[in-house]
Write the structure tokens for this entry.
Amino acid sequence: MTRCACLVDGMDFFSAMKQVISCPEVVRSRSEAMEVFEKRKLNTLTLAQRVEIINRFELGMKVTEISKTYKIPQSTVSTIIRKKDKWLKQHESRGTPQAKRDKPLLDDKLEQSLVIFVRQARESRIPLSGAIICEKARQFATQLGVQNFKGSNGWLVKFLKRQKISFKKLCGESASVDTVMTDGWKEHTLPKIIEEYEAQNIFNADETGLFFKCLPDKTFALQTESCHGGKYSKQRLTVMCATNMDGSEKLPLFVIGKSQKPRCFKDISP
């Protein structure tokens, strides 16, 4: 740096700064500093990664090896191991595996009360929407004295993610059947009924709807083409399917039409 210092004598400030910046020693030190900065790039760990670090340490992996694997300082690894009870408890209770910030809940009682409400509603076969959950959360917040709780859409998204609640479409008729009663019937009554019959003589039948004029809702099209569709036909037939227990015999489909005396069967004797 002596050469750079000597260049300052006998020239103005800006010229001296240009000479200093272009000095090989300064350029080299600046590049080394950039390399150090790139090496120490911030690497934020998720909750799942913290739990994985704890598990690897307990299996005998050294702190230095863990530090190189996750590209974090050894002090960070030591801190995670020292606070392993906290991370494991959060992971087992309500923690989001991909969460990177340890942000505490607004109120634990509010969270647990809402989870119980969701479970009871689903056990009673009551459909839940986001608006219903938010409104119930506001009611719980008022009863528990939680201040500054709005129950916004952002809170709803995070709550559903924390508790692993997904939005599903209701389908099927299984909710109208008492599963406790049917399980007991299948375990005790059904075996006694079919014990005297062979599998090929035991048939099962069920009905379904056939929309025979309904077109597919997806199609291949050119990328430059705007894809539009019309209304779907709702004309349907009720079809009953039947087959035996071992699948060796499938009965013809039994179709139930809408007309008592269809015109196409006129003058045809059964």
